[in-house]
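Request:
Um, any thoughts?
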Amino acid sequence: MPSKNVEVKEYTVRAHKRLIHTRTYKFICKQCHQPTVRESYATLRPLYCEICRPRKTKATAPQQKKKPRAVNYLSEDGEGEAR
């Protein structure tokens, strides 16, 4: 089983190096019905060749509610600060 050393630079954890095991799959593409060879680290056999493979879109993160800002009010006496 071929292996690759992959350097991960941007991730939600600290940067690190990781060893992944890949496997070469020979299969018939589900869309174009052509014999295909593709290297993958997934446990299941791929269904599509590189050309027919559906593109993944980046899921947008839900917007987080912004924290309220501090507001300075001017009292009726004229005390306090106003912006």
User: Anything to note?
Assistant: Residues 27 and 36 are 5 Å apart (CA to CA). Strands lie at 3-8, 16-21, 23-28, 35-40. The longest strand covers residues 3-8.
